[in-house]
Design brief:
The complex is a heterodimer of chains A (164) and B (584).
Chain A (H helix, E strand, L loop, with lengths): L3 E8 L3 H11 L3 E7 L2 H10 L4 E4 L8 H10 L6 E5 L4 H9 L4 E4 L6 H19 L15 H15 L4
Parallel strand pairs in A: 1-2, 1-3, 3-4, 4-5
Helix pairs in contact in A: 2-3
Chain B lengths: L3 E6 L3 H13 L8 E6 L12 H6 L3 E5 L4 H17 L10 E5 L2 H6 L10 E4 L4 H12 L11 E19 L4 E5 L8 E5 L10 E8 L9 E7 L15 H11 L4 E3 L1 E6 L6 H10 L2 E6 L2 E2 L3 H6 L3 E5 L8 H7 L1 E2 L3 H13 L6 E5 L5 H8 L4 E4 L5 H15 L6 E3 L8 E13 L3 E6 L8 E4 L5 E6 L12 E8 L3 H16 L44 H4 L39
Parallel strand pairs in B: 1-2, 1-3, 3-4, 4-5, 12-13, 12-15, 15-17, 17-18
Antiparallel strand pairs in B: 6-7, 6-19, 6-20, 7-10, 8-9, 8-20, 9-10, 11-19, 14-16, 20-21, 21-24, 22-23, 23-24
Classes of the chains: A alpha/beta (164), B alpha/beta (584).
């Protein structure tokens, strides 16, 4: 798998978790930044071009919900992946309102790499759409418009439902 | 105090002026409570018209002119579509719609609208009765009514007809929509003119649901005709199953034959035309609703295989508005409730397609723990809905088993549910009757004695006695011409002069000629026989006409208009059809 030229921001007040996840992702993403609370993460975010965020929900100073709220206020739809734990259902619903890309259950780290890679890829695609880095090449597929590709994606999704 | 808006849709300036004059004369415009607005058909670009113009005006009463002018004819199809959309959206379905027509013939040609979208219809003539009735119905207003000659103590049985519709047609069963609460395992009498020989008079009720599938009725029910068995006697009223099968197959292409059902939940009805177009071409029957109610009636009606949910984070309506109507906004809480309902329903797992989703599919699936969920993070798009529905059928595999829905403009869908009532009194304007059945207020019914007319059940403006578990109702008579009124007056006179034994009327001019009223007639000096319909009815005291229809303590029929400007004289009446509670 090609290492993605992208920046991942990991936000968790448990430093051990950030270390483990950073280790897991270092083969797939060129730049990994970390923070222990939403407030610090916001400062890092404002100074860097972040393509995907993996954030805990329950954190001191500024939790994951308040953090994503602040990001969305900046009109930025960078993918947000949330860690969830026991008793955070209400917060998960709250997180949906501000745009969640996916959820990963702590302490299970199954599928974490796959989910984060998808998030990073989505973040890169968003960045390319905005053309914020003119040196990055947009993958070409001239046969279909984005709208058509979206329709294909949804139709594929429909096929995956086990319809009776 | 916010203004109460009466909206007239039409181009008849004379009618609009009369409406304004009437409102001024009863003092409601002067007190600055009411605003009477006119939107002319010629000012509307119907091809591009969205639903929003009525939202902007937010009327409390709509009077629409159905007179056959060239402008109306060119706009008619659009108008009818708009009316159906109005009656679908939760926040406009309870605005009372009144129709005025140029003639009785024109009215009867559009009779399928009466009871489905129109709560009242009238032929243009002396419009004051209609103005009074509309203000009374729409605003619970204290309106001075004239004192009509009253035939009381009639006490006769009569079969009244309740306009209903057939939504689903089939050989073995039909699905009807009605305001009559039926009972599963019970029976219903109905006249269903699918074709001439479809002479069933009674049907078995198989199941029953609290939802109007296609129109603004309260209930829908599956009813089953009883075909004669191989050993049953056949007479001219018998209907053979083979006859119905032949008719059904010959008319099959005239129905909407649908493989499945899709429920489309969208607060924004501005694209209603596109939805109606999709209804025409899709293999899905599109149930179009603004919101879900707390009972999930729209889902219980058909258990749609696909639910399209247009997510709205912040509705323009308040939480109180939703609570009052017992409906749920289309937000995440609403989605959570919907999914919970689906999960607790046996063998039901629809695909839910969320438009305008704030989050992507994987995250929403995980939070709600529901796999058959697709989130589209883009605005609602009818073309995409169409493509996804086609894709659904391809994945599921198309079935030969289709459900046949009758099109809204198919007049054969108009049926009459028949119930027996006990008529207690009659004027040329009101009828009162007793029955054990509970009918919702503002239901529309039909009579054919002494003339073909419609009645709308209203809160009575006089005391009606209740005894023995019976409900006692009052209805305003409407959809009549001046000639019809003359016959009604004759009939009332007939009953006052000589009680009848059966509720029927044979026109006999000489017998029913009203006696002249003496010139000096006042109050109690007027002999009773001169209190006939057709004589001067204003200025004659309550002693002659007022009082309870059973002859007990007299009460005035007219409620006097309050002159105190500080009173809330008119209460906006969102005519949610509601059951009249019987007093035991």
């Amino acid at each position: 798998m090609t290492k993605r030229n992208a920046t991942l921001l990991i936000v968790d007040d448990e430093i051990d978790i950030t270390k483990i996840v950073s280790k897991l992702m270092e083969m797939d993403v060129t730049t990994i930044l970390t923070a222990t609370n939403g407030k610090d993460a916001l400062e890092i975010f404002d100074k860097n071009q972040v393509d995907c965020i993996l954030s805990d929900i329950n954190m001191p100073i500024m939790n994951g919900i308040e953090f994503v709220k602040e990001i969305r206020k900046r009109n930025l739809n960078v993918p947000f992946i949330f860690y969830t734990g026991y008793g955070t259902k209400r917060l998960m619903v709250e997180a949906l309102k501000y745009g969640a890309f996916d959820f990963i259950n702590k302490p299970e780290l199954d599928n974490l790499v796959e989910i984060v890679c998808r998030g990073v890829d989505t973040g890169l695609a968003i960045r390319h759409e905005k053309g914020s880095n003119i040196n990055d090449k947009v993958p070409e597929d001239s046969s279909k418009s984005q709208a058509d590709k979206d329709v294909d994606k949804y139709i594929e999704m429909m096929k995956k439902f086990k319809l009776e | 105090m916010s203004k109460k808006i009466v909206l007239f849709l039409g181009d008849d300036d004379v009618f609009f002026d009369e409406l304004n004059i009437y409102c001024k004369n009863i003092g409601i415009i002067e007190h600055n409570e009411f605003l009477v607005k006119n939107i002319s058909f010629k000012d509307i670009n119907w091809e591009n018209e969205t639903f929003n113009f009525t939202f902007d005006v937010l009327p409390h009463l709509i009077i629409m002119d159905f007179s056959r002018t060239p402008i109306f004819e060119s706009a008619k199809a659009h108008l009818i579509e708009l009316l159906y959309a109005l009656k679908k959206h939760h926040f406009t379905k309870n605005i009372p719609l009144f129709g005025i027509f140029g003639s009785k013939e024109e009215l009867l040609e559009e009779k399928y609208l009466i009871g489905t979208v129109l709560v009242y219809a009238q032929v243009k003539n002396d419009n004051r009765t209609m103005f009074r009735d509309s203000i009374y119905i729409a605003f619970d207003g204290r309106i001075p009514f004239p004192q009509y000659a009253l035939a009381r103590g009639i006490n006769l049985f009569y079969d009244i007809k309740i306009p209903s519709i057939v939504s689903v047609v089939g050989v073995d069963s039909l699905r009807i929509e009605t305001d009559v609460e039926l009972h599963p395992e019970g029976k219903v009498r109905a006249k269903i003119p699918l074709f001439t020989d479809y002479a069933f008079e009674e049907f078995n009720v198989k199941d029953f649901n609290y939802f109007g599938l296609m129109d603004n009725f309260l209930f829908n029910a599956t009813i089953v005709p009883k075909y004669p068995g191989p050993w049953d006697d056949i007479d001219e009223k018998s209907v053979q199953k083979s006859t119905v099968e032949t008719w059904y197959s010959l008319n099959y292409d005239e129905f909407w034959n649908k493989a499945d059902t899709c429920l489309l939940l969208n607060e924004d009805f501005s694209n209603y035309k596109d939805v109606f177009k999709l209804q025409e071409k899709s293999e899905f029957f599109i149930q179009y609703a603004s919101y879900l109610d707390v009972q999930f009636s729209a889902i219980r009606a058909t258990f749609p295989r696909v639910i399209v949910y247009n997510f709205v984070e912040f509705s323009k309506y308040s939480q109180k508005d939703f609570k009052d109507l017992k409906i749920t906004p289309n937000d995440l809480d609403g989605l959570a409730k919907l999914i919970n309902f689906v999960k607790i329903t046996d063998e039901y797992k629809p695909v839910i397609i969320l438009f305008n989703s704030p989050s992507n599919t994987e995250s929403v699936q995980k939070v709600f723990e529901y796999s058959h969920l697709m989130c589209i993070q883009k605005p609602f798009c009818i073309n995409l809905v169409s493509q996804l529905l086609q894709s659904f059928l391809k994945c599921k595999g198309s079935s030969e088993d289709k459900t046949s829905y009758m099109r809204p403009n198919d007049t054969r869908r108009c049926v009459d549910v028949i119930n027996e009532i006990f008529i207690t009194s009659l004027t040329e304007h009101e009828i009162t009757f007793k029955t054990r059945i509970e009918y919702p207020l503002y239901s529309v019914m039909k009579i054919d004695v002494p003339v073909n007319a419609y009645i709308t059940l209203v809160p009575p403006f006089k005391e009606l006695s209740v005894e023995g578990g019976q409900n006692h109702y009052m209805g305003f008579i409407h959809s009549v011409t001046e000639e019809d009124l003359q016959i009604l007056r004759q009939f009332v006179n007939r009953i006052i002069y000589k009680p009848i034994e059966k509720f029927e009327f044979n026109v006999n001019v000489n017998e029913n000629k009203p006696l002249p009223v003496p010139e000096n007639a006042t109050g109690s000096n007027v002999p009773e026989k001169s209190s006939l319909a057709g004589s001067t009815t204003t200025g004659i005291s309550d002693q002659m006409f007022g009082g309870d229809v059973d002859g007990s303590k007299k009460e005035g029929m007219v409620k006097k208009q309050e002159s105190n400007k500080d009173d809330e004289r008119f209460h906006v009446n969102r005519i949610k059809k509601k059951f009249k509670k019987s007093k035991l």
